[in-house]
Amino acid sequence: MAAVVATAVVLFLPRLANAPGWRAAITPLASIIGSGFLVLGPILDTAYGFYAPLVMAGLCLGGYWFGAVIRYNIATLARPGSHRDVWQIRLERMASWSLAFAYIISVAYYLNLFGAFGVSLTPVDDALHAKLLTSAVYVLVLVAGWVWGFRALERLEQLSVSAKLAIIAGLLTGLAAYFFDRVSAGALVLNLPLVSGWSGVALAFGLIVTVQGFETSRYLGAEYDAHTRIASMRLAQWIASAIYLAYIVLLAYVFRSGEFALTETAIIDMMVVVAPILPMLLVAAALSAQFSAAAADTSGSGGLIAELTRNRISPRHAYALLSVVGLILTWSSDIFAIIAYASRAFALYYALQSLIATLAAWKNRADRRLAFLFGALAVLGFLILIFGDAAEGAE
Helix or strand or coil: residue 301? Predict the structure, then answer.
């Protein structure tokens, strides 16, 4: 608890909270470590055993490479006299449509986790009541967006991000203490992986959404210049990668395989052993983070669809479409399948952005070597789109 309070005090210091670079980094950082942080640890630990930190490093590296694509595109657009040819314009439009669709699925991802965590510490902790809660929140989000819009809800993100980072600091502190206690007792465990070969690669493909979120810097041009967005995105990815890697290293070697069931809220059961206060803090962080993230992505999707259709589909009608699709996903799929769907949707967006970067780099003689890297990343994005697989949770 002391770590939570100390971190919160630092994050709310005016000098840090009001620093332009930090404020620009908050949005992508919040998206990257959002809800994925809560589900990713148990999935990697169960599926990959003692290889979990290596897989986490691979996911972070893949996310960083795709982030490099977005950063290159930001820099290209900011160059004096820069212009895009017809193919780049068409690809950008396709990428915007794919992002709008990815947001629709990511909202389903966030709100299904909201439902699961919302009932996790109650007597009705089961899939039916979790889906009922998710459905109720969908109705709330639709009504809020239809009547008031999301500006008020998006302001919540500034507070929830700092609170979430403070709780994560407490989680890592508790895990570190528990880890070193296991070290001193000679009780670390090396779990064998349950997946390997191509099935292991396909599962990792299906988890790319858990390190997604850095692309939000691409769309902050009205608030920050290109240099600030590029630097803050890089900072956000560095911080998120450090948090994720520390988290997985501390988690992967202290729980025996089969000691807990793989569910969307498995982290709650695991943290009871580490510190009794952590489950309540994690649920509080999950509820605030997932609701604010869902509101932000709903707003983003509605705005994109309205812009792409030149307001033939209004944001309000886009919110209704999002809610209908989300409710269908909620009642037809489990959270692990939705995670894989979201990963594949964002992979399409990254692949299209990589193609845009490839064309831009090829046109610039000084950057032609980068064109081959960006082309390879486009291929990787399409592979994730086609082959991304879902984890198998406990029934």
Answer: helix
